[in-house]
Design a protein that fits this description.
358 residues; alpha/beta; Isopropylmalate Dehydrogenase; 2 domains; ten-stranded mixed β-sheet; two-stranded parallel ribbon; 12 strands; 17% strand; binds 3-isopropylmalic acid; binds magnesium ion
């Protein structure tokens, strides 16, 4: 097993260090190589996704990714911004299926911004299409000058597009995932306004004919955003496009208490994948030993399950995380009265100890 480790920017290196410590105590054979990505790669090599990093990711059986982005790169032209690293990896590895589970751990019910009874037992799976939509549409306007000016261009535009095969394959992924859960899929679109998403709705409905055992309903994205905070437990699997999935997954994450808890997997047709926390690089708290490493540690568990065929190791990690939460340890983002506040490193150590003891 060959794992590419890409810590990235901001809190990325800190949270990754904890995940790697957990990986090391699992007693499973693996090789890993670490490389720069995002702003860190730009600073060292002039590009957010250097050829060597891309090659490493392409060679690997799986990629463990931290986070990219920092305000100090905000004025760079778009093709050099840190975000291009993750977009480039998604595109070149064809990681079209993004799994973003939003699970409310029972110990964290009170950390949610919603009333505990609305989120207790919450377990939603967002399946976000990741390589199409307005994110990858062509052509688009271009900010030409690095200082942020559009040099007199009168407009800018991005093109929203989806092809039939792109919608079909993500619909299959969602229906198959639902079969392993409570057999309900909600497809989220904007078919009342956008042609692209009327097409989405039609194609998802067609694919659904192959899954008579799974219930399908459709929601407009604005309504879905509202229902997510009104009655989140009404959802099971949500399937949606790249942009709506980006937005709704942040919203769903917050229901669980903290975006610092949520892992994600981005898979291609061969189940090779990239695993990353759902949160960003949080440059404001970088280097302070306060970031929550659990989302990255849980992403490692997803990697072991989906790409490396080590389901037992995945379970061991997940059980260790539950046990650590059970023991009352909390990083700042999930801290509440009566629990013990710890730093990134201490949280990682506690998980390592629990994994060892299991
Ligand atoms: C995410 C992030 C990315 C996205 C950014 C960093 C490009 O917000 O993974 O949700 O928009 O997809
Ligand atoms: Mg996002």
């Amino acid at each position: 097993m060959n794992i590419a480790i890409l810590p990235g920017d901001g809190i990325g290196p800190e949270i990754m260090a904890e995940a790697v410590r957990v990986l090391e105590v699992l007693d499973i054979p693996y090789e890993s190589e670490t490389a720069l990505v995002g702003g860190a790669a730009y600073a060292a090599h002039g590009h957010p996704l250097p050829e060597a990093t891309l090659k490493l990711a392409q060679r690997a059986d799986a990629v463990l990714f931290g986070a990219v982005g920092d305000w100090k790169y905000d004025t760079l032209e778009r093709s050099l911004r840190p975000e291009q690293a993750i977009l480039g990896l998604r595109r070149s590895l064809q990681l079209f299926a993004n799994f973003r589970p939003a699970i409310c751990h029972p110990q964290l019910t009170h950390a949610s911004s919603l009333k505990p009874e609305l989120v207790a037992g919450l377990d939603i799976l967002i399946v976000r299409e990741l390589t199409g939509d307005i994110y990858f549409g062509q052509p688009r306007g271009r900010r030409v000058s690095p200082d942020g000016a559009f040099a007199g261009q009168p407009e800018a535009f991005d093109t929203m597009r989806y092809s039939r095969p792109e919608i079909e394959r993500i619909a299959h992924v969602a229906f198959q995932a639902a079969r392993k859960r409570s057999k309900r899929v909600t497809s989220v679109d904007k078919a009342n306004v956008l042609e692209t998403f009327q097409f989405w709705r039609d194609v998802v409905t067609e694919v659904h004919a192959e899954y008579p055992d799974v219930a399908l309903d459709h929601l407009y994205v604005d309504n879905a955003a509202m229902q997510l905070v009104k009655a989140p437990k009404a959802f099971d699997v949500i399937v949606t496009g790249n942009m709506f999935g980006d937005i709704l997954s942040d919203e769903a994450a917050m229901l669980t208490g903290s975006i610092g808890m949520l892992p994600s997997a981005s898979l291609n047709a061969e189940n090779r994948g990239l695993y990353e926390p759902s949160h960003g690089s949080a440059p404001d708290i970088a280097g302070k030993n306060i970031a929550n490493p659990l989302a990255t540690i849980l992403s490692l568990a997803m990697m072991l399950r989906f790409s490396l065929n080590q389901p037992e190791a995945a379970l061991r990690i997940e059980a260790a995380v539950t046990q650590v939460l059970e023991s009352g340890l909390r990083t700042a983002d999930i801290w509440s009265e009566g629990t013990q506040r710890v730093g990134t490193r201490e949280m990682g150590s506690a998980v390592v100890a629990a994994v060892k003891a299991a």
